[in-house]
Predict the structure.
Amino acid sequence: METPNPNIKMWQGNVACAEGALAAGCRFFAGYPITPSSEIAEVLSLRLPKLGGNFIQMEDEIAAMGATIGASLGGVKAMTATSGPGFSLKQENIGFAAMAEIPCVVVNVQRGGPSTGLPTHAAQGDVMQARWGTHGDHPIIALAPGSVRETYDMTVKAFNLAEKYRTPVILLSDEIVGHLTEKVEVPPIESLGLTDRKKPTVPPEQYRPYEMDSSDIPPMANFGEGYRYHVTGLAHDETGFPTNNPEKIQAQLERLNRKIERYRDEIVEVEVQYTEDAEILVISFGSTARSVRRAVINAREQGIKAGLLRLKTIWPFPGKEIEAISASVRKIIVAEMNLGQLAHEVEWATRRSKPVVRINKINGEPITPNEIFNAIIRQD
Amino acid sequence: MDYLYYLRQDKMPHIWCDGCGHGIILKSILRCVDKLGWDKNDIALVSGIGCSSRTPGYVDFNTLHTTHGRALAFATGLKIANPKLHVIVVSGDGDATAIGGNHFIHAARRNIDITMIIYNNYIYGMTGGQVSPTTPAHKKASTAPYGNPDEPFDISRLAQAAGATYVARSTVYHVGKMDNYIGNALQKTGFSVVEILTPCPTSYGRRNKEGNGVDMMRYQKENTIGIEKAKNMSAEALAGKIVTGVFVDKEQESYLNRYNEVIKKAQSGV
C-alpha cells in the first residue's frame, strides 16, 4: 500500500481558511457563532491552543472585531470570521482598524441577504459592503477565493497584505466555497511569503506612528515594546494624537487612502482563461466563477470564442485589468449572485464601451453553467 | 510624587470643564500606579468614547482610544495578546453600561484580567447632557426635558451580579477611599471594577439645579453612607443617599489562568 502523503488533505473551504490562518502565523481568533462561517471558529478553537495561541468566543460580533484589533495591537496576528449580518455589525470597528492602521483579517463567508436572509445558502451580495460598509473614505482590500485550496492561499495572502499595508483585509468567501470539500495539497510554509509588519527603527522618543514617509506605510510598534504612543479613531496627525488642523487631517487621510491605491498593482490578482482571442468575456468571482469555467469550456468545445476573467481581488477593483482584457471583445457577461454589484463596476471600468450582460441570481441557488452558456450564445 | 512624570504635558490643557471631577480620578489612577511602581511601558490605558474616555490621551502609557462602548472588547484582545501588560479600561456611565453594557457584563462573567474604572456622572457629557443609564429617575437631561422616565442602573450591583472579582464605589470627594479602591483593583487578578461618582456641573448639575462642582462635591460629602451602615437602613432612609464601599472582594480563577489550562490540555493531547 502506498504511504499517504501527509500534505494532501480533504478539507472544507472553512477548514482551509482556518488552516491557512495558522500557517500565516495567526495566533489569535475572536469570533461569534454565525452560519455559514462557524466551522472556522470551531477549527480554531481546537487548533489554536495546541500552538499556544488563543481562541475566544466573544459576546457579540462587535466585540469579536474589537478584540481582534486589540490583539493585533498587542503584537499577535489576529483574525475574526463571520457572515453577512455579523459583517454588518463589525463595520464600525473595521473602520477603526482602517483609520488606526491596525493589521487584521476579517472573513465574511457570504450568505443570502438582506437581513437574516438565507443563512444556509450562498450569495455574493456583500461586494459593496466590503468596500463601503463602514463610514467615511477609507482604503480596503478584499479577496475572493474560488476553491478550497485558494481559500487557504488567500487567507495567507490576506495576512501578508494586512501586515504589509497596515490595514484590515476582507476575505470575501461564500457559502459554496466555505462548505465545499476538495482535495488540497498543502504548500510548504517557505512558499507562503510570510510577511510581518514593519517595525520602527528609531528610538521611542522619535517614533511617529503615522509618519508621512516615502512609502506611505508607517512602521508599527506593538503595545508593550517601549513605544508609548496613542491610538485613536479620531482624525489624528503623525503623532497619533487627535487634531482639528485641516491641513494635517487632509494629508493623513489622503495618505491613508493612497497607501493602498499606489500599491494596487502588487495587490490585485485576476485569473484569465481563453482570453487571447475571446469575443465574449465572462467576468465573475468566487463560487460563481466555477460555473463560468464550465460554461466557457462548453462554449469553446462548440467553437464559440468565449473567455473567462475571474477577479481574485475585488478591492482594490481590477478596473485596469478588466479594461485591458476586454479591449477586443464584443460582449461582456458578468455573472454574480447579487443584482449587479460587480457589473456596475465593470461598466464603469470599461466606460460602457461594450454591452454588459448581467446574470444575477439572489435566491440562494448557484448560477448554473447552462445559464451562463445560454447567455454566451444568445444574440444580444 | 511627580504627576508630571506620567502626564503628556504637551497635550494640556485637557478638555474637561471647570468643576468636573474627572481630573481627580486621573490623579488617583496615577498615584496608585506610582505606588505600585509599574513601568509606564507595561501599562495600557484603554477607553471608548466620551469625556472620561479622553483620559488616555493625557497619560504617558500605551494608550488606546477605541469606539463607543467597545473599550473592553479591544482591551480583551490586547490583554490576551500581551499578558504582561497591565490593562486598565476607563469608561463613562453611558459608554460602559449603555452601548457597552454587553461587553461589561461579559467581561465580568469571563473574569478577564482587566481593571475597569467607571467615571459615573449620570449623564452623557460630551454630547451635551443626554440622559444616561445612570441618570436617576425624574432628573432632567437634554433628552429628558420632563424628567427621566427610566430607572437607573446600579453599576456596582450590576458588576457584582455579572461576576466581577472586585467591585467598589467611591466619590471623587472621598479621595482616600478612591485611592484605596483603585489601588486594590489594580492588584486584583481577574476583572475588577471601581465606580467613581464624579460631578458634571455643566451638563447635569446645571440642568438639575445642583450647583457648581463644589456644590456637587459637597453633596457627595454630606450624603454618602458606607456599605456596612447602609445594610441596616431602610429604603426610605437611603433615598437620595450614595452608598460607597467594597461590594465584592473575592478570589476566583481569572480568564487567562483558565485559558492557560486550555493550552495545557490541548498540547498534552487530552
Summary: Chain A has two domains: 8-192, 271-377. The mean pLDDT of chain A is 97.
